[in-house]
Amino acid sequence: MTDDLVDDLAYVKALAEEGRDTPLVSGLIYVIWGIVIGGTTLMVYGQEVGISVLSFADGPWPWAFAMVLGWGLSMYFGRRTHTKPGASTLGNRTAASVWLSVGIFTTGFWMTLMLVHDNFTSLGIPPGFLFSLMFPMAFGLFGVAFFATATAARVGWMRWIAAISWVCAMASLALMGSVNQLLLGGVGTLLCSTLPGLILMRNEPSEVV
User: Fold this and answer.
1) Residue 66: helix, strand or coil by DSSP?
2) How many other CB atoms are found less than 10 A from the CB of residue 77?
């Protein structure tokens, strides 16, 4: 066994003797994506309703920048996450796997829409309208990921975040075509990603156990 795995086993044993579960160590990644996507969404919303006038907030460029920034920061800080105590436990490995799959699918879905969003005008669908599917889809996946993580890591309060995510998914579906979907998407992302991330960061173990 590697030294990291031996250390994690010793750490888990110590927690078990204290009657505690292994904390999740990916809180910073939740915070990064929550701030990047939530902030970008609210910036675009402000541009759409005339609160701000930012030339770079038009078109696909703010979203492309957000994707690149989010993935870049995730890869940079993710390497540090893997060295934290307990990172090799089932709960943390499940959480990392399920959220990575959510990120890959969401990014791929967005990139596909970039290519095909105006292919359906003959059916009466305006160019760009299909991008409105992003928030219902993303929040729905958030809920599934939170629920799976809650079960694997035995973090009961995450089921409430899953429920909130699903409410945001249904509400954003109902708001397709409305600029208010951006407001809901921005606030919902901060609530469903940044907030739980901060809670997890507060509960994370120190680098030295």
Assistant:
1) helix
2) 14
